[in-house]
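Input record (one chain):
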Amino acid sequence: MDETRRVLIAADKFKGSLTAVQVAERVTAGLRRIVPGIEVEALPVADGGDGTVDAAVAAGFERREVRVAGPLGEEVTAAFALRGDTAVVEMAEASGLQRLPAGVFAPLTASTYGSGQLLRAALDAGARTIVFGVGGSATTDGGAGMLAALGARFLDEHGEPVAPGGGGLAGLARADLSGLDPRLASVELVLASDVDNPLTGPKGAPAVYGPQKGASPEDVAVLDAALAHFADVLAGVVGPGAARYAQSPGAGAAGGIGFGALLLGARFRPGIEVMLDVLGFAPALERASLVITGEGSLDEQTLHGKAPAGVAAAARTAGKEVVAVCGRLALTPEALEGAGIRRAYPLTEVEPDVAACMAEAGAILERVASRIARDFVCPPTHPSRSAES
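The corresponding structure, as predicted from the sequence alone:
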């Protein structure tokens, strides 16, 4: 193979171990350990969930910070990314699980109010296009908190605001959307998510994702009924479109915040697709001859809209060779090939102990990247081929 190959690293984070930026740095170091002069372009990617703002900043967006409400109402510093009049807003920055104290869940009361404040900050910054990445949420409130932060009012039978969180929606008597920020009408809002669940029902947000946020079976039932009631009340305000939105793909994303975004006129797109567009993946791909993608776990979920699958699909269309790095591998060679990935390199192949593997992920990833350099970059007669990394 030609030593002048140009490598594009387009990997997501290794959750709990390395950010997407750190993955790119370590892979680059491992490649250059074997081929010092190799041309490498790093484009950290994300699928709309946590890490999306970091990926945008790594691609040249400006990081903007603002004080907003966390999922329990406490004030936190959250960031969005801005380039020109395009903003990338990540709901997990304000309303994500990482904003909860360790070991604390609040399935019935956690609110997306801070996510609405982030959207408002993007509007204040002059954004005309907002990519709203949703995932990793601590919330199941159907986006009610977000809408309230943007000017909507949700009142109980006494005319008082309902309690925050999905549980509070059970007491909703009246919704007033007349106060929504008028700037929303002239903004292109893109709902970027890797899930296409509806709002309620057996595949809805409470049933599928509620348990991950600490919801008991009883909590799930309460939340599902409350969100169904929320959609019914909104149907009385916006018409039958509310019911259609509730069943639309992406409505159940991030505890139903997708439903709230659809009510605002958002267009749903798979998160990795929109992020690859925003990050400038196509021209970077054109410059590359080998693509390295990856994430912490390559498994069945990867094949359903996660970043490596999106990267591999785009690369295959362009006729580019793709390999993947990961912490653990739970896909067969046939499944990888079907996704457009020539070969995967799991860190657990080097260090089978998962705890040790996560603790030393960076160093192990460098060793793995050196293997990739030998297997896919160096010619067969390269003297380093037999050396140990």
